């Protein structure tokens, strides 16, 4: 799981999503910030080893934003794990690559937000609006010179396992391999992710 940067847990209401994760793990996520022009805001929970859980929800204070919102936030009715991000130092190469079925990770995006302490953080990522194979193929992210959001944070939770499920495991595994990601893909009726966390409340599964 060395390439896992963060997991994306979408919630129709951010405060409710934070409370949900706290009930499961015994740990409260720290406020992240708003994503200007995207219509979202987040909270972060360190998972150790420069990884974190991003709890993301609509930002009611943004009157104007790109519609629809990312990560299914205009459609979901209950919090769930929708996708994940893998770290990369070759975003340009990967974004320009097409998979055999014609899909791609989309154009590169330059993003920024301001933390609650006023510090601006910047990163680049492949298009977060592109969802490949139900979200089990990750988007890619590069923090550049910005400190990783989980760096230096005390972590009470560890990511023990990330399970990837899909009706066509060989196809998904091939796409992951082309991104230099080696994770097992398990056959299932529908695409989905399962994150296994070791937390103060015991072992927890997020789906």
What does this structure look like?
There is one protein chain. It contains three helices and twelve strands. A hairpin with a 4-residue loop joins β2 and β3. It has a single domain, classed as Roll (2,3-Dihydroxybiphenyl 1,2-Dioxygenase, domain 1). The protein has an eight-stranded mixed beta sheet. Strands 10-9-11-12 form a four-stranded mixed beta sheet. The model has no long low-confidence stretch (mean pLDDT 94). With 207 residues, it is mainly beta. Helix content is 13%, strand content 38%.
What is the CA-CA span between the terminal residues?
Answer: 17 Å
C-alpha-based Rg, rounded: 16 Å
Please report the number of helical segments.
3
What structural class is derived from the secondary structure elements?
A: mainly beta
N to C succession of SSEs? EHEEEEHEEEEHEEE
CATH top level class name: Alpha Beta
- Outline type: globular
Instruction: Write the CATH architecture name.
Output: Roll
pLDDT averaged residue by residue: 94
Q: Structurally, how many domains make up the residues?
A: 1
* Helix coverage percent: 10-25%
User: Strand order of the main beta sheet, please?
Assistant: 2-3-4-1-5-8-7-6
Kindly summarize this structure in a few lines.
By secondary structure, the chain is mainly β. It contains 3 helices and 12 strands; from the N terminus they run βαββββαββββαβββ.
